[in-house]
Amino acid sequence: MAPYTSGSGGSISGVSYADPQGPASLERYVYGLLALLEKQENNLARVPERTDRISITANFSNETAAIDLLLNAVAAIGVGGIISYTATHYVTGSTFTSGTGGDSSAPNLAQAAMEGVIALKLIELDPARKLNPEKTVITRCTHTLGASGGSNTTFSALLEFPIEVISLPGGGSVIEGKVFLN
Question: Which pTM value belongs to this model?
Answer without folding.
Answer: 0.92
